[in-house]
Amino acid sequence: MVILILLPSPVQPKSFSLPDPPAFEGVLAQNKKLQRAKRLLEGQIAGPESLEFHEGAIYTGTLDGKIVKIVGETIQSIAVLGTPPCGKFEDEPTCGRPLGIRITKDGTMYALDAYLGLFQVNIKTGDVNQLISSELVVDGKPFKFLNDLAVSDDGIIYFTDSSYKWDRRHNRYLVVEAGDCGRLMWYNTATKQIRTLLSNLHFPNGVELSAKQDYLLMVELTRARVLKYHLKGPKSGKVEVFADNLPGLPDNIRHSSGGGYWLAIAAIRNPKLPLFDIMASRPWMRSLIMKIFDQETFMKMIPKYGMVVELDENGRIIQSLHDPTGEVIPAVSEVLEISPGELYFGSYFAPFIGKLNLLELDDSNKS
Q1: What's the gap between Cα 250 and its chain centre?
Q2: 156-184: per-residue pLDDT in tens?
Q3: Of 48, 184, 283, 343, which has the highest C-beta tally within 10 A?
Q4: Helix %, strand %, coil % for the chain, to 5?
Q5: 10 CB neighbour count, 10 Å cutoff
Q6: What is the pTM of this model?
Q7: Which helix (H) or strand (E) segment is 298 a member of?
């Protein structure tokens, strides 16, 4: 025991507290709707983190550093951002890991690679143009974990740097530490200027512009909330909480057809035994755990539970979809709604894309 205490920990956790997690009742009542989802392309694709739809095709970035186009059962690689080899832990920084992707109205793709930077991709030719290198240092801090992005009609790209300390391979350390080493960034595609909008963020993750582009929503994963950053009007530059005390640790956020937002949940906060919450005020416990277990073993200790929630335009949860055992959808990184009720689910690790049509769920299977 003495030796264990004396051993250095790979993390330096911060103490914090969260409100008691919301009970799974009302709009959060447990159901099995996600278990009705289909697994598409199972075993043919790895880690389709972020999803986009354009002219009849789905686009995504994968664990092997590729950006692919999917039409039906056909997967076509359209761009590679890094250099092989790929597939091993030590390869990832050079192989690359595309995370957030967006396609603008004119068909231009912008892709954010966790390690390599921000890229413009021609989805027809596969030509790649690096706009920002991850080696760039802004305000004295390097980019270590570039994550998600949103693109405005006037060519401004808002993106998250989840950490200037930990890279994507060590994202479990970032969660366990729960520190404030993240940033929200601003980039002008016309002038090439870049600046920090917000700093000292707690694992900033998904971002989404409002329909009028007058504010930006940004997920703060280790605080289980969504922040609202005003872009126009008298509150321009101000930040407020849009959705707080969420039922899990949120990932990406995207528009829903109902005028609100789909929010992917990476891991739930179990109201009966909220381990993340219990450890929040006990940094010594988190430090000890990471002395004993490696990242992968730590992840295996977390029960599988798939969940997504829909927020209305005021940040209130209006519905939730569950897979309580994680049998079909063990976790979700992003929800793409192609048409009303037609949902596709991304994942940072799963070997498939999930699909669920809410309109096809008959009343007998909605509970």
Answers
A1: 7
A2: 999 999 999 999 999 999 999 999 999 99
A3: 48
A4: 15, 40, 45
A5: 15
A6: 0.96
A7: helix 295-300
